[in-house]
Amino acid sequence: MNIEPTLLGKYNVPVPRYTSYPTVPFWTEEFDIARWKEAFREEFLKNNVQNGISLYIHLPFCESLCTYCGCNKKITTNHGVEGEYINAISKEWKLYKQLMSESPILREIHLGGGTPTFFSPSNLATIVESITRRAVVHPHHEFSVEGHPNNTTKHHLKALYDLGFRRISYGVQDHDQEVQRVINRIQPLENVHRATEEAREVGFRSVNFDLIYGLPKQTLPGIEKTIQQTIELKPDRIAFYSYAHVPWTSRGQRLFDENDLPSAQEKLELYLKGKELLAAAGYVDIGMDHFALPADDLYEAWLNGRLHRSFMGYTTQRTSFLLGLGVSSISDIGVAFAQNRKSLREYYEAIEKDELAVFKGYFLSEEDMSFKKYILNIICGGFTSIDPSDLAVLRELSFPLLKELEEDGLVEWNEKEVIVTSLGRHFLRNIASVFDLHLQRNSLDAKPLFSKAI
Ligand code: SF4
Question: How far apart are the CA of 66 and the centre of ligand 1, in A?
Fold first, then answer.
Protein backbone atom coordinates (compact mmCIF):
# COMPACT_ATOMS: atom_id res chain seq x y z
CA MET A 1 0.00 0.00 0.00
CA ASN A 2 1.29 3.45 -0.92
CA ILE A 3 0.92 6.13 1.68
CA GLU A 4 1.40 9.69 0.51
CA PRO A 5 4.37 11.38 2.22
CA THR A 6 2.15 14.41 2.94
CA LEU A 7 -0.31 12.17 4.79
CA LEU A 8 2.52 10.59 6.70
CA GLY A 9 3.90 13.99 7.65
CA LYS A 10 0.49 15.20 8.75
CA TYR A 11 -0.26 12.26 11.05
CA ASN A 12 3.22 11.47 12.30
CA VAL A 13 2.69 13.58 15.40
CA PRO A 14 2.98 12.73 19.12
CA VAL A 15 -0.08 10.71 20.05
CA PRO A 16 -0.82 8.21 22.87
CA ARG A 17 -0.57 4.44 22.42
CA TYR A 18 -3.82 4.06 24.39
CA THR A 19 -2.80 1.34 26.79
CA SER A 20 -5.18 3.18 29.13
CA TYR A 21 -7.85 5.88 28.91
CA PRO A 22 -7.44 8.48 30.25
CA THR A 23 -3.72 8.22 29.45
CA VAL A 24 -1.15 8.46 32.25
CA PRO A 25 -0.23 12.16 31.74
CA PHE A 26 -3.79 13.04 32.79
CA TRP A 27 -3.61 11.11 36.05
CA THR A 28 -2.96 13.00 39.24
CA GLU A 29 -0.45 12.77 42.06
CA GLU A 30 -3.12 14.32 44.31
CA PHE A 31 -4.52 10.83 44.48
CA ASP A 32 -6.95 9.95 47.29
CA ILE A 33 -5.58 6.64 48.64
CA ALA A 34 -8.53 6.12 51.03
CA ARG A 35 -10.90 6.40 48.05
CA TRP A 36 -8.67 4.02 46.07
CA LYS A 37 -8.85 1.43 48.85
CA GLU A 38 -12.64 1.76 49.02
CA ALA A 39 -13.02 1.40 45.24
CA PHE A 40 -10.60 -1.56 45.33
CA ARG A 41 -12.70 -3.33 48.01
CA GLU A 42 -15.95 -2.82 46.07
CA GLU A 43 -14.65 -3.73 42.63
CA PHE A 44 -12.81 -6.75 43.97
CA LEU A 45 -16.08 -8.12 45.37
CA LYS A 46 -17.94 -7.46 42.11
CA ASN A 47 -15.28 -9.16 39.99
CA ASN A 48 -13.75 -11.94 42.05
CA VAL A 49 -16.46 -14.59 42.09
CA GLN A 50 -17.66 -13.85 38.58
CA ASN A 51 -14.39 -13.81 36.64
CA GLY A 52 -11.51 -13.93 39.09
CA ILE A 53 -8.75 -11.33 39.10
CA SER A 54 -5.52 -10.69 37.20
CA LEU A 55 -2.11 -9.89 38.66
CA TYR A 56 0.81 -8.13 37.03
CA ILE A 57 4.09 -8.46 38.90
CA HIS A 58 6.91 -6.13 37.85
CA LEU A 59 10.42 -7.56 38.24
CA PRO A 60 12.66 -4.60 37.42
CA PHE A 61 16.25 -5.89 37.34
CA CYS A 62 18.35 -6.30 34.17
CA GLU A 63 22.03 -7.12 33.87
CA SER A 64 22.73 -4.58 31.13
CA LEU A 65 21.04 -1.57 29.56
CA CYS A 66 19.48 -1.84 26.12
CA THR A 67 19.74 1.73 24.88
CA TYR A 68 16.30 1.83 23.21
CA CYS A 69 14.49 0.73 26.39
CA GLY A 70 11.58 2.74 27.78
CA CYS A 71 10.69 0.36 30.65
CA ASN A 72 11.12 0.96 34.35
CA LYS A 73 14.25 -1.07 35.10
CA LYS A 74 17.23 -1.19 37.42
CA ILE A 75 20.54 -2.25 35.89
CA THR A 76 22.67 -4.43 38.14
CA THR A 77 24.73 -7.59 38.04
CA ASN A 78 24.32 -8.09 41.78
CA HIS A 79 21.82 -10.90 42.24
CA GLY A 80 21.82 -10.23 45.98
CA VAL A 81 19.02 -7.72 45.24
CA GLU A 82 16.51 -10.52 44.59
CA GLY A 83 15.80 -11.32 48.25
CA GLU A 84 14.75 -7.81 49.33
CA TYR A 85 12.50 -7.46 46.31
CA ILE A 86 10.81 -10.82 46.90
CA ASN A 87 10.02 -9.80 50.49
CA ALA A 88 8.55 -6.49 49.33
CA ILE A 89 6.27 -8.17 46.76
CA SER A 90 5.05 -10.65 49.34
CA LYS A 91 4.35 -7.87 51.82
CA GLU A 92 2.56 -5.73 49.23
CA TRP A 93 0.33 -8.69 48.36
CA LYS A 94 -0.52 -9.11 52.06
CA LEU A 95 -1.43 -5.39 52.25
CA TYR A 96 -3.83 -5.80 49.34
CA LYS A 97 -5.16 -9.05 50.79
CA GLN A 98 -6.43 -7.01 53.75
CA LEU A 99 -8.74 -5.21 51.30
CA MET A 100 -10.17 -8.49 49.99
CA SER A 101 -13.09 -9.82 51.96
CA GLU A 102 -12.84 -13.28 50.41
CA SER A 103 -10.13 -15.47 48.93
CA PRO A 104 -8.92 -14.04 45.63
CA ILE A 105 -9.47 -16.27 42.61
CA LEU A 106 -6.42 -15.90 40.37
CA ARG A 107 -7.27 -16.05 36.71
CA GLU A 108 -4.15 -14.47 35.29
CA ILE A 109 -0.61 -13.78 36.45
CA HIS A 110 1.88 -11.98 34.25
CA LEU A 111 5.52 -11.58 35.25
CA GLY A 112 6.93 -8.56 33.44
CA GLY A 113 10.01 -6.42 33.64
CA GLY A 114 12.81 -5.53 33.54
CA THR A 115 13.90 -9.09 33.08
CA PRO A 116 11.89 -11.61 35.13
CA THR A 117 14.46 -14.30 34.24
CA PHE A 118 17.10 -12.20 36.03
CA PHE A 119 15.69 -13.95 39.12
CA SER A 120 16.84 -17.50 39.79
CA PRO A 121 14.30 -20.28 39.08
CA SER A 122 13.88 -20.94 42.81
CA ASN A 123 13.34 -17.23 43.53
CA LEU A 124 10.70 -17.01 40.80
CA ALA A 125 8.98 -19.97 42.46
CA THR A 126 9.18 -18.20 45.85
CA ILE A 127 7.52 -15.09 44.40
CA VAL A 128 4.70 -16.96 42.69
CA GLU A 129 4.10 -19.30 45.63
CA SER A 130 3.96 -16.38 48.07
CA ILE A 131 0.98 -15.18 46.01
CA THR A 132 -0.78 -18.45 45.18
CA ARG A 133 -0.43 -19.77 48.73
CA ARG A 134 -2.89 -17.09 49.82
CA ALA A 135 -5.32 -17.46 46.93
CA VAL A 136 -7.40 -19.88 44.86
CA VAL A 137 -6.02 -20.61 41.40
CA HIS A 138 -8.83 -20.65 38.82
CA PRO A 139 -9.03 -23.98 36.95
CA HIS A 140 -8.72 -22.10 33.63
CA HIS A 141 -5.94 -19.78 34.67
CA GLU A 142 -3.42 -18.24 32.30
CA PHE A 143 0.05 -17.50 33.66
CA SER A 144 2.58 -15.80 31.39
CA VAL A 145 6.10 -14.49 31.66
CA GLU A 146 8.52 -12.26 29.77
CA GLY A 147 11.88 -13.95 29.13
CA HIS A 148 15.23 -12.74 27.87
CA PRO A 149 16.61 -15.26 25.34
CA ASN A 150 20.12 -14.76 26.73
CA ASN A 151 19.35 -15.81 30.28
CA THR A 152 16.20 -17.95 30.20
CA THR A 153 17.46 -21.41 31.10
CA LYS A 154 15.71 -24.74 30.96
CA HIS A 155 15.65 -24.60 34.78
CA HIS A 156 13.69 -21.32 34.60
CA LEU A 157 11.28 -22.82 32.10
CA LYS A 158 10.73 -26.00 34.12
CA ALA A 159 10.21 -24.06 37.35
CA LEU A 160 7.69 -21.76 35.66
CA TYR A 161 5.93 -24.66 33.95
CA ASP A 162 5.54 -26.42 37.31
CA LEU A 163 3.95 -23.23 38.68
CA GLY A 164 1.34 -23.26 35.90
CA PHE A 165 2.96 -20.94 33.33
CA ARG A 166 2.15 -21.85 29.73
CA ARG A 167 2.91 -18.64 27.83
CA ILE A 168 6.25 -16.97 27.36
CA SER A 169 7.14 -13.80 25.52
CA TYR A 170 10.73 -13.31 24.40
CA GLY A 171 12.20 -9.88 23.72
CA VAL A 172 13.92 -10.49 20.39
CA GLN A 173 13.81 -6.99 18.82
CA ASP A 174 16.15 -7.59 15.85
CA HIS A 175 18.55 -10.35 14.79
CA ASP A 176 20.90 -8.02 12.92
CA GLN A 177 24.30 -7.83 14.61
CA GLU A 178 24.95 -4.17 13.77
CA VAL A 179 21.55 -3.13 15.16
CA GLN A 180 22.22 -5.26 18.26
CA ARG A 181 25.57 -3.55 18.75
CA VAL A 182 24.05 -0.05 18.60
CA ILE A 183 21.17 -0.92 20.94
CA ASN A 184 23.59 -2.75 23.26
CA ARG A 185 21.67 -5.98 23.15
CA ILE A 186 23.95 -8.68 21.80
CA GLN A 187 21.74 -11.69 21.43
CA PRO A 188 22.96 -14.44 19.09
CA LEU A 189 20.28 -16.14 17.00
CA GLU A 190 21.27 -19.48 18.54
CA ASN A 191 20.15 -18.16 21.96
CA VAL A 192 16.72 -17.24 20.60
CA HIS A 193 16.55 -20.61 18.89
CA ARG A 194 17.52 -22.50 22.03
CA ALA A 195 15.14 -20.55 24.31
CA THR A 196 12.25 -21.10 21.89
CA GLU A 197 12.88 -24.80 21.44
CA GLU A 198 13.34 -25.37 25.17
CA ALA A 199 10.09 -23.56 25.99
CA ARG A 200 8.26 -25.91 23.62
CA GLU A 201 10.06 -28.99 24.92
CA VAL A 202 9.11 -28.10 28.49
CA GLY A 203 5.46 -27.70 27.49
CA PHE A 204 4.78 -23.98 26.97
CA ARG A 205 1.90 -23.82 24.54
CA SER A 206 2.43 -20.27 23.32
CA VAL A 207 5.63 -18.46 22.48
CA ASN A 208 5.50 -14.76 21.61
CA PHE A 209 8.33 -12.70 20.09
CA ASP A 210 8.62 -8.96 20.49
CA LEU A 211 10.27 -7.31 17.49
CA ILE A 212 10.84 -3.60 17.00
CA TYR A 213 10.94 -1.56 13.81
CA GLY A 214 12.44 1.91 13.64
CA LEU A 215 15.59 1.07 15.63
CA PRO A 216 18.90 2.76 14.77
CA LYS A 217 20.78 1.18 11.87
CA GLN A 218 17.78 -0.87 10.73
CA THR A 219 17.54 -1.32 6.97
CA LEU A 220 15.00 -2.92 4.68
CA PRO A 221 17.21 -5.95 3.83
CA GLY A 222 18.05 -6.26 7.54
CA ILE A 223 14.42 -6.30 8.70
CA GLU A 224 13.58 -8.76 5.92
CA LYS A 225 16.22 -11.14 7.24
CA THR A 226 15.07 -10.68 10.84
CA ILE A 227 11.47 -11.44 9.91
CA GLN A 228 12.47 -14.48 7.86
CA GLN A 229 14.59 -15.85 10.70
CA THR A 230 11.67 -15.22 13.04
CA ILE A 231 9.19 -17.01 10.79
CA GLU A 232 11.49 -20.05 10.74
CA LEU A 233 11.12 -20.28 14.52
CA LYS A 234 7.31 -20.00 14.17
CA PRO A 235 6.33 -18.07 17.30
CA ASP A 236 2.56 -18.19 17.89
CA ARG A 237 2.31 -14.42 18.30
CA ILE A 238 4.49 -11.56 17.18
CA ALA A 239 4.34 -8.05 18.53
CA PHE A 240 6.04 -5.93 15.88
CA TYR A 241 6.33 -2.68 17.80
CA SER A 242 7.09 0.76 16.56
CA TYR A 243 10.20 2.09 18.33
CA ALA A 244 9.17 5.04 20.50
CA HIS A 245 11.92 7.67 20.46
CA VAL A 246 11.45 9.70 23.63
CA PRO A 247 15.01 10.59 24.77
CA TRP A 248 13.61 13.29 27.06
CA THR A 249 12.15 10.54 29.28
CA SER A 250 14.25 7.47 28.32
CA ARG A 251 17.81 8.67 28.82
CA GLY A 252 19.44 5.51 27.42
CA GLN A 253 18.16 6.62 24.01
CA ARG A 254 20.68 9.46 24.12
CA LEU A 255 23.48 6.90 23.93
CA PHE A 256 23.18 6.34 20.19
CA ASP A 257 23.34 8.78 17.30
CA GLU A 258 19.89 10.06 16.28
CA ASN A 259 21.17 10.22 12.70
CA ASP A 260 21.18 6.41 12.70
CA LEU A 261 17.39 6.35 13.14
CA PRO A 262 15.33 5.68 10.01
CA SER A 263 13.14 8.55 8.76
CA ALA A 264 9.35 8.33 9.17
CA GLN A 265 9.05 7.17 5.55
CA GLU A 266 11.79 4.56 5.99
CA LYS A 267 10.23 3.42 9.26
CA LEU A 268 6.89 2.94 7.57
CA GLU A 269 8.58 0.92 4.83
CA LEU A 270 10.19 -1.31 7.48
CA TYR A 271 6.76 -1.88 8.99
CA LEU A 272 5.05 -2.55 5.66
CA LYS A 273 7.78 -4.99 4.63
CA GLY A 274 7.53 -6.83 7.95
CA LYS A 275 3.76 -6.94 7.73
CA GLU A 276 3.87 -8.26 4.16
CA LEU A 277 6.28 -11.06 5.09
CA LEU A 278 4.28 -11.98 8.19
CA ALA A 279 1.02 -12.08 6.21
CA ALA A 280 2.65 -14.32 3.58
CA ALA A 281 3.71 -16.68 6.40
CA GLY A 282 0.13 -16.93 7.72
CA TYR A 283 0.23 -14.36 10.53
CA VAL A 284 -2.94 -12.29 10.88
CA ASP A 285 -2.68 -8.57 11.61
CA ILE A 286 -5.00 -8.23 14.59
CA GLY A 287 -4.38 -4.54 15.27
CA MET A 288 -1.72 -1.99 15.98
CA ASP A 289 1.60 -3.87 15.71
CA HIS A 290 0.26 -7.32 16.74
CA PHE A 291 0.19 -10.49 14.64
CA ALA A 292 -0.97 -13.99 15.51
CA LEU A 293 -1.20 -17.41 13.89
CA PRO A 294 -4.85 -18.50 13.46
CA ALA A 295 -4.43 -21.23 16.11
CA ASP A 296 -3.56 -18.64 18.78
CA ASP A 297 -6.09 -17.34 21.35
CA LEU A 298 -5.35 -13.74 20.41
CA TYR A 299 -6.57 -14.37 16.88
CA GLU A 300 -9.73 -16.01 18.17
CA ALA A 301 -10.32 -13.08 20.57
CA TRP A 302 -9.90 -10.65 17.67
CA LEU A 303 -12.33 -12.67 15.55
CA ASN A 304 -14.93 -12.78 18.32
CA GLY A 305 -14.57 -9.14 19.38
CA ARG A 306 -13.02 -10.09 22.74
CA LEU A 307 -9.70 -8.37 22.18
CA HIS A 308 -8.65 -5.93 24.87
CA ARG A 309 -5.82 -3.43 25.20
CA SER A 310 -4.06 -2.77 28.46
CA PHE A 311 -0.64 -1.85 29.80
CA MET A 312 0.57 -5.17 28.44
CA GLY A 313 -0.56 -4.38 24.87
CA TYR A 314 -3.30 -6.43 23.22
CA THR A 315 -4.65 -9.21 25.44
CA THR A 316 -7.50 -11.69 25.50
CA GLN A 317 -8.35 -10.28 28.96
CA ARG A 318 -10.34 -12.68 31.02
CA THR A 319 -11.04 -10.32 33.91
CA SER A 320 -11.79 -6.61 34.41
CA PHE A 321 -9.73 -6.32 37.56
CA LEU A 322 -5.95 -6.06 37.31
CA LEU A 323 -3.77 -5.59 40.38
CA GLY A 324 -0.19 -4.49 39.72
CA LEU A 325 2.47 -5.41 42.27
CA GLY A 326 6.04 -4.14 42.39
CA VAL A 327 7.85 -0.93 41.64
CA SER A 328 6.09 1.30 39.04
CA SER A 329 3.28 -1.26 38.50
CA ILE A 330 -0.12 -0.07 37.38
CA SER A 331 -3.46 -1.40 38.62
CA ASP A 332 -6.64 -1.09 36.56
CA ILE A 333 -9.81 -1.94 38.45
CA GLY A 334 -12.23 -0.72 35.77
CA VAL A 335 -13.36 2.43 37.58
CA ALA A 336 -9.89 3.66 38.56
CA PHE A 337 -6.18 3.35 37.82
CA ALA A 338 -3.30 3.56 40.29
CA GLN A 339 0.45 3.48 39.80
CA ASN A 340 3.14 2.45 42.27
CA ARG A 341 6.18 4.57 43.03
CA LYS A 342 8.80 4.42 40.30
CA SER A 343 11.96 4.49 42.37
CA LEU A 344 12.94 1.30 44.16
CA ARG A 345 13.93 3.23 47.30
CA GLU A 346 10.52 4.93 47.57
CA TYR A 347 8.71 1.69 46.79
CA TYR A 348 10.60 -0.15 49.56
CA GLU A 349 10.06 2.72 52.02
CA ALA A 350 6.27 2.67 51.54
CA ILE A 351 5.99 -1.12 51.85
CA GLU A 352 8.30 -1.13 54.87
CA LYS A 353 5.85 1.26 56.59
CA ASP A 354 2.94 -1.10 55.78
CA GLU A 355 1.58 1.44 53.31
CA LEU A 356 0.49 0.90 49.71
CA ALA A 357 3.19 2.22 47.37
CA VAL A 358 0.62 3.99 45.15
CA PHE A 359 1.53 7.61 44.35
CA LYS A 360 -0.57 8.50 41.32
CA GLY A 361 -3.85 7.51 39.73
CA TYR A 362 -7.21 8.43 38.33
CA PHE A 363 -10.90 7.79 39.08
CA LEU A 364 -12.94 7.58 35.88
CA SER A 365 -16.06 9.72 35.39
CA GLU A 366 -19.10 8.41 33.52
CA GLU A 367 -17.97 10.38 30.50
CA ASP A 368 -14.52 8.75 30.71
CA MET A 369 -16.16 5.30 30.76
CA SER A 370 -18.07 6.04 27.51
CA PHE A 371 -15.11 7.48 25.68
CA LYS A 372 -12.79 4.74 26.93
CA LYS A 373 -15.18 2.32 25.22
CA TYR A 374 -14.96 4.21 21.89
CA ILE A 375 -11.16 4.25 22.06
CA LEU A 376 -10.94 0.54 22.86
CA ASN A 377 -13.42 -0.28 20.07
CA ILE A 378 -11.32 1.60 17.50
CA ILE A 379 -7.99 0.24 18.68
CA CYS A 380 -9.18 -3.36 19.10
CA GLY A 381 -11.78 -3.74 16.35
CA GLY A 382 -11.45 -0.81 13.93
CA PHE A 383 -15.10 0.07 14.49
CA THR A 384 -17.30 1.77 17.06
CA SER A 385 -20.99 2.48 17.37
CA ILE A 386 -21.98 5.77 18.95
CA ASP A 387 -24.22 6.24 21.96
CA PRO A 388 -26.79 9.00 21.21
CA SER A 389 -26.36 10.35 24.75
CA ASP A 390 -22.78 11.40 23.85
CA LEU A 391 -23.73 13.27 20.68
CA ALA A 392 -23.51 16.79 22.11
CA VAL A 393 -19.88 16.34 23.18
CA LEU A 394 -18.98 14.40 20.05
CA ARG A 395 -20.41 17.10 17.79
CA GLU A 396 -18.34 19.71 19.57
CA LEU A 397 -15.02 17.88 19.93
CA SER A 398 -14.77 14.70 17.87
CA PHE A 399 -16.87 15.04 14.72
CA PRO A 400 -14.90 18.00 13.27
CA LEU A 401 -11.77 15.84 13.57
CA LEU A 402 -13.51 12.82 12.08
CA LYS A 403 -14.47 14.92 9.04
CA GLU A 404 -10.82 15.62 8.42
CA LEU A 405 -9.89 11.96 8.86
CA GLU A 406 -12.64 11.06 6.39
CA GLU A 407 -11.30 13.54 3.82
CA ASP A 408 -7.91 11.84 4.15
CA GLY A 409 -9.50 8.40 3.62
CA LEU A 410 -8.82 7.05 7.11
CA VAL A 411 -12.42 6.55 8.30
CA GLU A 412 -16.00 6.29 7.12
CA TRP A 413 -18.51 7.59 9.63
CA ASN A 414 -21.92 8.95 10.46
CA GLU A 415 -23.54 9.90 13.75
CA LYS A 416 -24.22 6.25 14.57
CA GLU A 417 -20.86 4.58 13.82
CA VAL A 418 -17.23 4.99 12.83
CA ILE A 419 -15.42 2.49 10.61
CA VAL A 420 -11.65 2.52 10.11
CA THR A 421 -10.63 2.04 6.45
CA SER A 422 -7.72 -0.18 5.38
CA LEU A 423 -5.59 2.97 5.01
CA GLY A 424 -6.78 4.11 8.44
CA ARG A 425 -5.44 0.91 10.03
CA HIS A 426 -1.96 2.47 9.78
CA PHE A 427 -3.17 5.44 11.85
CA LEU A 428 -5.22 3.78 14.61
CA ARG A 429 -3.66 5.92 17.33
CA ASN A 430 -4.55 9.14 15.50
CA ILE A 431 -8.12 7.94 14.92
CA ALA A 432 -8.59 6.87 18.54
CA SER A 433 -7.32 10.26 19.68
CA VAL A 434 -10.43 12.05 18.33
CA PHE A 435 -12.33 10.41 21.21
CA ASP A 436 -9.69 11.43 23.75
CA LEU A 437 -11.55 14.29 25.40
CA HIS A 438 -8.67 15.00 27.78
CA LEU A 439 -6.32 15.54 24.86
CA GLN A 440 -8.88 17.63 22.96
CA ARG A 441 -9.74 19.84 25.92
CA ASN A 442 -6.23 20.47 27.20
CA SER A 443 -3.53 22.28 25.36
CA LEU A 444 -0.76 20.12 26.76
CA ASP A 445 2.58 20.34 25.08
CA ALA A 446 2.43 16.78 23.78
CA LYS A 447 6.12 16.36 22.99
CA PRO A 448 7.28 15.32 26.45
CA LEU A 449 4.29 13.02 26.83
CA PHE A 450 3.84 10.80 23.81
CA SER A 451 5.86 9.23 21.02
CA LYS A 452 5.13 9.94 17.35
CA ALA A 453 2.41 7.92 15.58
CA ILE A 454 4.72 6.21 13.05
S1 SF4 B 1 14.82 -3.86 27.03
FE2 SF4 B 1 14.31 -5.36 28.60
S3 SF4 B 1 16.31 -6.30 29.08
FE4 SF4 B 1 16.77 -4.38 27.99
S5 SF4 B 1 17.04 -2.85 29.62
FE6 SF4 B 1 14.89 -2.77 28.97
S7 SF4 B 1 13.80 -4.09 30.37
FE8 SF4 B 1 15.99 -4.59 30.52
Answer: 5
Q: Is the peptide bond before 114 cis (omega within 30 degrees of 0)?
A: yes
pLDDT in tens, 390-428: 999 999 999 999 999 999 999 999 999 999 999 998 899
Distance 73 CA to ligand 1 centre (A): 7
Strands (E), 379-449: 383-385, 411-413, 417-420
Q: How far is the CA of 353 from the centre of ligand 1 (A)?
A: 30
Dist. CA 275–CA 240, nearest whole Å: 9
73 C-beta closer than 6 A to ligand 1: yes
Q: What is the pLDDT of residues 165-180, one digit of tens each?
A: 999 999 999 999 999 9
The whole-model pTM stands at: 0.94
The predicted-structure confidence for 105-148, as pLDDT tens digits, reads as follows 999 999 999 999 999 999 999 999 999 998 999 999 999 999 99
* ∠ CA 384-375-49, rounded to 5°: 95
The CB of 148 under 6 Å from ligand 1? The reply is yes
Strand partners, 384: 418
- Which residue's CA is minimally distant from atom 4 of ligand 1? 66
Higher pLDDT, 8 or 99: 99
Per-residue pLDDT band at 366 (split at 50, 70, 90): very high
271-281: pLDDT as tens digits: 889 999 999 99
- Give me the sign of the Cα torsion angle 373, 377, 378, 383: negative
Phi-psi region of 220 (alpha: psi -120 to 50; beta: other; left: phi over 0): alpha
Which residue has a Cα nearest atom 1 of ligand 1? 69
3-state SS string for 71-133: CCCEECCCCCHHHHHHHHHHHHHHHHHCCCCCCCEEEEEEEEECCHHHCCHHHHHHHHHHHHC
Residue pair 299/289 in contact by the 8 Å Cβ criterion: no
Alpha carbon 326 to its chain centroid, in Å, reads 16
Arithmetic mean of pLDDT, 223-236: 97
Q: Is the CB of 60 under 6 A from ligand 1?
A: no
Atom of ligand 1 nearest to the CA of 68: 1
335 phi/psi in degrees, rounded to 5 = -100, -5
Q: Is 113 in the pocket of ligand 1 (CB under 6 A)?
A: yes
